[in-house]
């Protein structure tokens, strides 16, 4: 009976590097702005970096009709969509 070798990726694995303690954080609502704020164990606001916004839209496209189809009276023979993803970079 032959033994199957371990997959290549598993032969390259190793233990994670030891990390330090993670500080305690809490999410609270600012009573004036009604926005979530992250605070540390000393009550100081923690900045987590800039986060932007994005929108996803899908514009339908269709094909068919062709020459001699009478001005588009027939249903399209093929339908597709063109996805778009607009990214807005946040300020930080």
Automatic annotation (TrEMBL):
It holds the Pfam family Actino_peptide. Residues 63-73 have a biased composition (Gly residues). It comes from the Bacteria. Residues 1-20, 46-92 are annotated as: Disordered. Residues 52-62 have a biased composition (Low complexity). InterPro entries: Actino_peptide, GRASP_targ. This is ATP-grasp-modified RiPP. It comes from Kitasatospora kazusensis.
